[in-house]
Amino acid sequence: MSAHGNAARRAALDKKVMPVSAVAELRFVAVGQDDPLAAPLIDELAIEYADRYGGQRENVYAWLRGYPAAEFEAPAGGLLIGTLDGRPVTGGAFRRFDADTAELKRIWTDSRYRRRGHARTLVTQLEVEIYARGYRRVYLTTGDRQPEAEALYASLGYTRLAEPLPAEGEVYSIAFLKVLP
């Protein structure tokens, strides 16, 4: 990416709203975990994870909300919500995994807006921000009941690892890594 292109993207992000040409009407907003635009992300993830993996929605919701909000704040992390006409339709976050690696978390697209390229655009936009923050690798884990997530990450150049990287806390069986150019 050219220095000018990177500077233009940074300037747009600094304004907290970023138009994305790949999906013309989709706009990204940098928010905190407690921002009202992030609420649908947490709510629908709780429902979806409870349905896919079993469990009570309330317990999954509490688990999702259990992450300290500071982990997803600048300069080490970030949370982007993609909106259409002001309505949140996709979102995701990243946090520091180690000095060179960011970890993607909570990649989500509203079930009514899937299969339109929004998740692909989201992950690409998160990668731009991750790179701008000085990270050179992106790591993520996902559960074994999310084949569409596995396919998305593979299609975006992520390499599936034989096992997750050593980490504190929760570990999922499926892990991916991408080295940013």
In whole angstroms, the N-to-C terminal distance is: 9 Å
CATH superfamily: Gcn5-related N-acetyltransferase (GNAT)
User: According to CATH, what is the class?
Assistant: Alpha Beta
Question: Per CATH, what is the topology?
Answer: Aminopeptidase
CATH architecture title: 3-Layer(aba) Sandwich
Strand order of the largest sheet: 1-2-3-4-5-6-8-7
- Which structural class should the secondary elements be placed in? alpha+beta
Strand content: 25-35%
* Radius of gyration, taken over Cα atoms and rounded to an integer in Å: 15 Å
Report the principal-axis shape. globular
Overall number of strands: 8
Summarize the helix and strand pattern as letters.
Answer: HEEHHEEEHEHEE
Low-confidence stretches: 1-23
- Report the major sheet: 8 strands, mixed
Helical percentage: 25-40%
Mean pLDDT: 86
How many H/I helical runs? 5
Number of domains: 1
